[in-house]
């Protein structure tokens, strides 16, 4: 018998010793980080409301209780009884019964009403029918991504259970040795922006944190083939942690499965969905531009199947000696500061991912409240000595002024925007400005993936700033459904109609002008001297966006009638930059993130910034807070214990 099987036997015996008479346990399994308890008496478990909470506290494990399949009530009968328990106002749109696990997935417009106060309605459902309810939100805006992910995971339930059981046994195996040390190896995004990737190693475990591409630099990928990473085989990695879905952090996650990786990816639920959206588009753009994609779409599906979503604040075992906790990073939907607790109090490391320290219209500011952090790996995108962003209110006034001046001339405002995060932030500014009469009401055209990304945002309002979340919970006040917003889905013909029409605002991907529909809009609107191109997000070195920002007014553009042939386009439209809308903290925000940590870390690795930015931030943190700081290069390894 393996050590894990012995452990499960002991856990079952301990659980049974804690149960009241008349409640039995038929099986206990690990599924990923959770302990799943099967019982013939699910209704009795539900009637003892504190029982699961007491067991979880005593065993120090996340526990899910499921009914044995042979005690389940008939789904048709159960459906009717479930609907009598759930209030009509919850807006249930679907019930999906899974006899193999005894779960019923309830999709509703207002999931909170299905859950009830402290889970009271969920317990009532189990008491009534025995099935274990799982609740998901009906997207207020129809999302093909959310629908496709849910349907795919439904089809792959059996495979996914096998994956989770295998992962669970790996997490809870006995530790192999007595040696203790902690190392971080840098595989990318050091003294550069893009291709974020790190290996966090202990004597027991190797965790890959992020695996992205580099914007505007084809072929520059993380150093995955070195011995510290995949050099000894993809399955030498025990787990992957994805801080957020932007391509400079997520684009090459599916590539791991092409190389043979078969382990878990830990991320938040919206990060999983957005990764699917963005990586599939990444493949599509590569194909359209005649580049060989690095992997097939099947690998994206494999990545989604291996995702284990975690919520902010949940402390989760991901290896015998590593616990992971996600905290809001304030950057984009589902972005997470990733805190690793290693060993039995041995060492603590936090990876900031990309952060925004202050509240924005869309998100609450980044969390930096940890019990302990000895080493912080921190982004430095705006870490340079003079990298101070305009105050948010001033930024909004500047944008409103640009829009009003352009409207008066009868022109159009063209805003290259990241589909995820910045677009929704700008949408909230525009919706309020029109509602309050600060700018004239006019069409706001959303091109590329912006509408689909917005639909995903409305599916997960619990990840948005408190005020926005409250508005979305009340459907009539959903700001993303304002009538001015128009989804461009008619291609070139619709773009020409917009060009021929009156004043308008156009938000289009890509945010750094590296391809996508923004190139078409430049052809349509670029020659118009009454129109304006407005940058509201970071433009990385080497991208066309940075070049235009620096004064290029003749840009290369592909000839649609002669594929592969490039021409130049003369930009006659004005070009402006409105700072303050970035999803990244500026220099002061980064300094304040560290300043307000209590206790502060002993060491900080400044990464994800150009050479000047990381060195400036490293120097400032050292002088200001008397801590050891580093501006590492790629392929360096740091040992901490």
Topology:
Blueprint: H1 3-18, E1 27-31, E2 34-39, H2 42-47, H3 51-59, E3 62-67, H4 75-85, E4 92-98, E5 103-108, H5 111-115, H6 120-129, E6 132-137, H7 144-155, H8 157-171, E7 182-188, E8 197-202, E9 206-209, E10 239-241, H9 247-250, H10 253-258, E11 265-267, H11 269-288, H12 297-305, E12 307-309, E13 316-319, E14 322-328, E15 336-342, E16 347-351, E17 375-379, H13 392-408, E18 412-416, H14 422-435, E19 444-447, H15 450-459, H16 466-473, E20 485-487, H17 491-500, E21 504-508, H18 517-525, E22 532-535, H19 544-549, E23 554-558, E24 566-570, E25 574-577, H20 587-595, E26 603-607, H21 611-625, E27 628-630, E28 637-639
Helix pairs in contact: 4-6, 11-12, 17-18, 20-21
Give keywords.
single chain, 641 residues, alpha/beta, GMP Synthetase, Chain A, domain 3, Metallo-beta-lactamase, Chain A, 4 domains, seven-stranded mixed beta sheet, 28 strands
Spans of at least 5 consecutive residues whose pLDDT stays below 50 are none
Q: What oligomeric state is this?
A: single chain
Distance between the termini: 34 Å
Secondary-structure class? alpha/beta
What proportion of the residues is helical, as a percent range? 25-40%
What is the CATH architecture descriptor of the largest domain? 4-Layer Sandwich
Separate helix tally: 21
The main pleated sheet reads as:
7 strands, mixed
**Order of strands across the main sheet:** 12-11-10-9-8-7-28
Give the full name of the CATH homologous superfamily of the largest domain: Ribonuclease Z/Hydroxyacylglutathione hydrolase-like
Number of domains: 4
Radius of gyration: 26 Å
What's the total number of strands?
A: 28
> Overall pLDDT, averaged?
93
By CATH reckoning, the class of the largest domain would read Alpha Beta
Query: What is the fold named in CATH at topology level of the largest domain?
Result: Metallo-beta-lactamase, Chain A
- Tertiary shape: globular
Strand content is 15-25%
